[in-house]
Sequence to fold (126 residues):
Amino acid sequence: MVNEKRSLKGRLGEDIAKKYLEKQGYKIISQNFRTKTGEIDLIAEKKGTLVFVEVKAGGLGKDGFLPEDKVNYLKIKRLIEASRLFCAKEKKLMDRIREFRYDVLIVDLEKRSVVRHYESAFFAED
Fold:
């Protein structure tokens, strides 16, 4: 029951984030790209920049943490590894990409809006 509720919350948050990005001029390339190492919520492109997006939905948790606090080292590591696998798989797309970026979008489900968009929230080390 808890996982089902969390899953519904996550899907709703991703749908809101997707619409937000599209309004900002991004083209959504993929949603919920899954690998053995992790998942990328949204992959978008804008003006030659490929953006890997982690979406967190909700507000201040019962534990006192904000959604962005839950984007920890392990989550970042898995997202970067999944992004590398995506790039290796999508060689044709990579021909037109000039830059890569990792963003975090925080969605307030009560207001049904993106309240915080962190561009270049973290970087992949070589």
Q: What stands out?
A: The longest helix spans residues 2-23. The two ends are 40 Å apart (CA to CA).
